[in-house]
Amino acid sequence: MAKCSWDFRYLLLAAAIAFIYIQMRLFATQSEYADHVAAAVKSENHCTSQMRLLIDQISMQQGQIVGLEEERKRKDEECRQLRALIQDLERKGIQKSFGKIQVPVAAVVVMACNRADYLERTIKSILKYQTPVASKYPLFVSQDGSNPDVRNKALSYDQLTYMQHLDFEPVHPERPGEIIAYYKIARHYKWALDQLFYTHNFSRVIILEDDMEIAPDFFDYFEAGSILLDSDKSIMAISSWNDNGQKQYVQDPYILYRSDFFPGLGWMLSKSTWDELSPKWPKAYWDDWLRLKENHKGRQFIRPEVCRTYNFGEHGSSLGQFFKQYLEPIRLNDVQVDWKSMDLSYLMEDKFVKHFAVMVKKAKPIYGTDAVLKAYNIDGDVRIQYKDQAEFETIARQFGIFEEWKDGVPRTAYKGVVVFRYHAPRCVFFVGPDSLQQLGIEQL
């Protein structure tokens, strides 16, 4: 019985050892399986990560392929346009005719975009007076964009050279709500002027827009102006425009003024001035930018009393702003002035300040709120003092002239003085708070 008891114990011990061994093997197997599972999960995660990376790379490459395809289309379009332009130039014999030109006074460029009907009216007006002096004033049309009607209209004229500005860069306005067209216009102006001054190497350029007609003496006026521009470095540009050039405010087509306000709308610029402006040309609103004092640095502009350009563009980027009130009533000069016989030395900086001071000093001062009535009842020129912008705007509103200021300067002003006709021949001078001192006139 004792022996049987011991045998049973041995059996239990053997069974226990076997059980422990089996549990150890099972644990080892489970551990090994867990390691395999972990390795498999890790491998799966790696594969997933690699797959995502590969998908991202494929997406990026697809984007690049789309971008390259778009770029190829753009280049193909540019090449097509250039081939057509070269064929047209060859047909017209432009290169041959340009070889005969000696020294042009200035290139004339019409800035166009998408108004073919306006452009045709402008070109016809220019050719009416440019044809006899074509060698002095080579005519260009610069189109921004690819409007086919504008392009075909420009290319239909043998008397001009066509340029095309193709700009595919997206526009990013600096402020919400800004009109994108003003950014495109600024880019176009810079490109066109760079082409004319640096590629064609003109010494002066007259800039027109595709909604303008010109006066009979337009080219003689600018030829006389070119002499002033070259001889007086205090003149930044010559303009054919007077903001207060409406029929009721002008009379004498022979009179010119200096102005601290950039008039635009038909103006001539020299290459030396463009060398300064081109590197810092603004992204938008180039005309307002030119009116900043920091950009014209005390230099002034020559403007006529009677406009040599007429702006008929009621529809355009400015949405007809000011058209009915200020642009439509403009008087376009119809007198053939012999500018070559005119002595314009009075417009030189040192002479004009004295010349203008005499005019202002002779004018009779009037005071009070009924300035319009008093000006009407006084024979001869009158002057009206204003103390600040608000008072200027009040008085200007009574007479109906431009109230707008830019960078502290009223439109057309010279040393703060705005002059216009009122029931011609009398002149009215709006005189700023510091104008008499700037003109060297003692307070009266």
TrEMBL record:
Primary localization: Golgi
Membrane topology label: Single-pass type II membrane protein
Superkingdom of the organism of origin: Eukaryota
GO MF assignments: alpha-1,3-mannosylglycoprotein 2-beta-N-acetylglucosaminyltransferase activity; manganese ion binding
Pathway: Protein modification; protein glycosylation
Ranges in coiled-coil conformation: 65-92
Cofactors that this protein relies on: Mn(2+)
Keyword entries, A-Z: Coiled coil, Glycosyltransferase, Golgi apparatus, Manganese, Membrane, Metal-binding, Signal-anchor, Transferase, Transmembrane, Transmembrane helix
EC number: 2.4.1.101
Reaction(s) catalysed by this chain's protein: N(4)-(alpha-D-Man-(1->3)-[alpha-D-Man-(1->3)-[alpha-D-Man-(1->6)]-alpha-D-Man-(1->6)]-beta-D-Man-(1->4)-beta-D-GlcNAc-(1->4)-beta-D-GlcNAc)-L-asparaginyl-[protein] (N-glucan mannose isomer 5A1,2) + UDP-N-acetyl-alpha-D-glucosamine = N(4)-{beta-D-GlcNAc-(1->2)-alpha-D-Man-(1->3)-[alpha-D-Man-(1->3)-[alpha-D-Man-(1->6)]-alpha-D-Man-(1->6)]-beta-D-Man-(1->4)-beta-D-GlcNAc-(1->4)-beta-D-GlcNAc}-L-asparaginyl-[protein] + UDP + H(+)
Localization (cell): Golgi apparatus membrane
Claim: Manganese is one of the keywords in the record: yes
Identification of the protein by name: Alpha-1,3-mannosyl-glycoprotein 2-beta-N-acetylglucosaminyltransferase
Organism annotation: Ilex paraguariensis
